[in-house]
Specification:
206 residues; alpha/beta; Rossmann fold; 8 helices; 56% helix; globular; binds thymidine-5'-diphosphate
């Protein structure tokens, strides 16, 4: 039996990590086996790459090198964590996947969308069954993200204009892609979680 593959996407501070966790808890309570994971990271090798891409000087990597690093991390995550869990029939919930690369690396430092898509086709080639886009006003998101500032700040440092551009990019992608469910991240956490759980259960019942 093959499992199901769900992803959460959104700009920094959207609350998607919290919602990913809440969905995992809710589905486990329904009796499902859930593998909750994240990107960049999600496997030991990819977690090592995470440190390379999220720490240090924002100009540490060229946009092209960055695409390669995120894709390398994703490939390892897919091989070591996602595919084995799906093969066991589990529900995989990942906090970010390829749509993040499409936005962050694809549009934020010049138009590299085609490069991202080509590398994805070559090295990854799979999409989630369902993607929850947690949509939030970039000013709200940025304030949240900066209030928990740590050493991983390279992308939050990009500022409001870029976060706005990426929000618009995510929303455009969502309207073009049936697997997306757009969820407003502006509201009560439990209410948002209930909406997401209902959408996930509807999908699982199909
Ligand atoms: P994440 O840990 O999800 O941070 P947050 O909880 O603040 O959303 O992701 C870390 C950063 O990595 C985030 O700023 C987005 C960025 N990122 C990319 O630029 N490209 C990618 O492919 C991925 C997966 C993440």
């Amino acid at each position: 039996m093959a499992g199901r593959f769900f992803s959460f996407e959104g700009i920094d501070g959207s609350g998607k990590s919290t919602q990913a966790r809440l969905l995992a808890t809710a589905l486990r309570a329904e009796g499902h086996t859930v593998a909750l994971t994240r990107e960049p990271g999600g496997s030991p090798g990819a977690e090592e790459i995470r440190r390379l891409v999220l720490e240090g000087d924002p100009d540490r990597w060229s946009p092209e090198t960055e695409i390669l690093l995120f894709t390398a991390a994703r490939r390892d995550h897919l091989e070591k964590t996602i595919r084995p869990a799906l093969a066991r029939g589990e529900i995989v919930i990942t906090d970010r996947f390829a749509d993040s690369t499409r936005m962050y690396q694809g549009i934020s430092r010049g138009d590299l969308a085609a490069t991202v898509d080509q590398l994805h086709a070559l090295m990854i080639g799979v999409e989630p069954d369902l993607t929850f886009l947690i949509d939030i006003d970039p000013a709200v998101g940025l304030a949240r993200a900066q209030s928990r500032a740590g050493s991983e700040m390279r992308f939050e440092d990009m500022g409001l204009a870029l976060q706005s551009q990426m929000r618009a990019g995510f929303l455009t992608l969502a309207t073009q892609t049936p697997r997306f469910r757009v969820i407003s991240g502006d509201g009560d956490q439990a209410a948002i979680a209930a909406t997401i759980k209902a959408a996930a259960l509807t999908h699982l019942a199909r």
